[in-house]
Amino acid sequence: MKHFYTLLITLITLTASAQIPANYYDHATGTGYTLKTQLKRIINNTDDPEISNTIEEEHNPQSYNSLDGFNSTYERDYYYEAAGSNTILDMYSENPSGADPYTFSPGSDECGNYSGEGDCYNKEHVIPQSVFGSQSPMYSDAHHLIPTDGRVNGFRDSYPFGRVNDSQLVSQSGIDNPTDNGSKLGNNLNSGYSAGYSGRVFEPIDEFKGDIARIYFYFVTRYEDQVSSWSSYPMFDGSSDKALADPFLNILVTWHQNDPVSAKEIDRNNNIYYSHQNNRNPFVDHPEYVALIWDTTPDTEAPSDPTNLVASNPTDNSIDLTWTASTDNIAVASYDVYVDGTNTFNTTETTFTATGLTADTNYCFTVKAKDNSGNESSFSNQDCETTTDNGSSGGDIDIFFSEYIEGSGQNKVLEIANFTGADVNLSVYTIKLSANGAAGWTSGFTFPNGATITNQDVYVVANGGASVCSGEYDYLNNDMTSFNGNDAIGLFKNDVLLDIIGELGNAAVYGEDITLIRKSTVDRPTTTFDIINEWDESDNCDDLGDHTQTLSIDDVALNQFKVYPNPVKNVLNIELQSAKKTQVEIYNVLGKRVISKTINTSATIQTEHLSNGVYILRLTQGNSTISKKLIKN
């Protein structure tokens, strides 16, 4: 059993902060030896034009001697010994379940001469350098060079790795066999998964057999173009594709399966990539590649069905989707996203935004998983959502004009309020003016870079010469704040009219020498100006810089719907007494909307993807809204 100890090692190893670079394996598609060749092109030292559209950082070979400093810094035992930060991790002497038989101090215990086990450590070529004639870059490739006890390194010599027959161990002076940690040298056990070879082999302990296997898979992939010329080595078969002889391929695949990738391997892979030679071992990052390349048995098993599909957060032209990942006997390759029964999108993630949709339209989604062999799952559950309409029919929650000041001279001020439940960046919003009953809008005023309205706050734009309540101004602009009492003023989002003061094309005076404040019952923008029902007149600007919203619940009475269970776990039930278009929104404690869905009859809302905690459930029918506290367990 492995024993791992948590140490403060962030200055030495790269773990959570060092991940697989985005897009690094984009070109690794397909199966079999085609996939192996694609991986070779990703990790070799050549700029391959066929993968120029992905992240490709060529292998940058370093000198053999540079491994000394790398080993001293990164090859330390942070994984098995509570006080092991200043000892070398040697796979040939490590005792994973107890005290090591001996330890090595980085640098000071490094040597070239030794007489017995425990004297010193040096660098072991996992693929013996005699195989490739000590040529570069193989000679100094850190992915197959590991620090090991010098005497055990010499004991292993250039023998292949295998499964030792305990009745045929080799005897050598100066070393016990098995060694102090149980590694051993002897004739291969020519039966079971190691059948087919009876020559002498070296066997590491179980803890590190997968490590050795993945080093070999890396080596025959990285040097695919050369490995066919090294056929005198028993582990290689003289080919460039399969590369590994059958007995040893069976051994390595078994070791790979029985000893999964460890934290030590992940750290080592990251350290080699980020701090030494710029390339990675794909079989540490993606263990499933082994079966995809070397398993000649056809894969006919389909992935499991995706579950818990949730459609949420609609905009005019997009809807967010999330679902629970499928599983597969080898690996899920991607997901097909169906829109109203048509296969429309493909993604490798379990979150996706469906784009290019039509405003104010209901869409129903399903998802299928598929693997690299073309096997497909059945459909996930179906979930539907309706895109918004930018307020053109009064149906969308968004920012809106909350105060209008038209005074003498240059005292012209506009206030915009945000009660959406989340902070709003103003980069996609503009204000436009239509003067004296003109039929069209001006080109528009854009907000300063980075301008944002926090939730339940306002943003004030004033004429540069205005002087009333000047302490509340957020920005000065003379183009859109030179209006008179008969000019129409529009608030636009993505160049679509969202809210309006006045009437486009009508030169009648509606607001001259006056302050108008939006009624507290208004919670969304509208493209129809209703001064009687939506605005109150004021004779001062004391309310500038602040706005109050008090929502009516006349039409959404508590006896018109039921919400259960609360606390909720995976599914929230909403029962409507009568069919009526109802907007269901859930906000977290930071004011961010995490679920938005339009229902017309009783429905269920998937909440499995929400974290445990307190939320606000908001139900809207027409212009009336009610909010309830919702607890997720």
From TrEMBL:
Residues 302-391 form the Fibronectin type-III domain. Residues 1-18 form the signal peptide. Pfam families: Endonuclease_1, fn3, LTD, Por_Secre_tail. InterPro entries: Endonuclease-I, FN3_dom, FN3_sf, His-Me_finger_sf, Ig-like_fold, Lamin_tail_dom, Secre_tail. It comes from the Bacteria. SMART domains: FN3. Keywords: Endonuclease, Hydrolase, Nuclease, Signal. GO terms for molecular function: endonuclease activity. NCBIfam families: Por_Secre_tail (TIGR04183). Belongs to the EndA/NucM nuclease family. This is Endonuclease. It comes from Psychroserpens ponticola.
